[in-house]
Amino acid sequence: MSQATIFSVNAVARLRDQREEEGIKPIQARGWRAPRCRACRVIESHCLCAWRPQVETRSGVCLIMTNKEVFKPSNTGWLIADVVRDNHAFIWSRTEVDPQLLALLADPQWQPYLVFPGEYVEPARVTNSVATDIGKRPLFILLDATWTEARKIFRKSPYFDRLPILSLLPEKLSRYRLRRSTRSEHLCTAEVAALCLDLAGDTDAASALDAYFDVFSQHYLDAKHQLDMNVSTPAHAELLPFVQGTPPQSPIL
């Protein structure tokens, strides 16, 4: 069975392809010359594709991204779109809004939640829980950008003003090691999404995404440091129950 018949479309990958068709070039960060898998963005010797999980989710996700973020191989929004079947992604613009985004927010099957720290919002809009018994499916709006960019998107997107704000209360510090952050309590987008899924009762998807994120981080960093691919880790063992087929058990040479 082909990957296309097993997995849903990754909206972040589709958005990247659209930007490239428009003539926008990827950023040339350190290591950009290394051949990367087109599907998972990891250096080919440490390809992640065989470890993509397959789980059912009631929730949906919508990623609001910047022009640069969609091209970054270290982006973790891509992982969310790999795991959550109903995934959407849009490039943010201060002056224009994609009509498809507005249609998604107005779709009666969804209850959108804008995920953002509650201390920056009027208390009446803030919730720390997800309603699962209202006849609508939760749709998590995630601002997939740097913290500075996310605050700008939040302030300058009036179409989000009517949405409830889901403020998370994480009990553990971020495990994200692919980029530097000045504050360890700032979670990366995949970690945020896993917390959202757990709140919504999509516990299998939350567990799969957490493990997938850890496996991605290891493959990415091992490739970066020219280490052999190691699939005998606790993260790989946690992810394995959610993987279809038999992943490779040794490095791809």
From TrEMBL:
InterPro entries: DTW, DTWD2/TAPT
Pfam families xrefs: DTW (PF03942)
Enzyme class: transferase
Record's signal peptide: none
Keywords, comma-separated and alphabetical: S-adenosyl-L-methionine, Transferase, tRNA processing
Boundaries of every DTW domain copy: 33-225
Entry keyword annotation includes Cell membrane: no
EC number assigned by the record: 2.5.1.25
Protein name according to UniProt: tRNA-uridine aminocarboxypropyltransferase
Record lineage: Bacteria, Pseudomonadati, Pseudomonadota, Gammaproteobacteria, Pseudomonadales
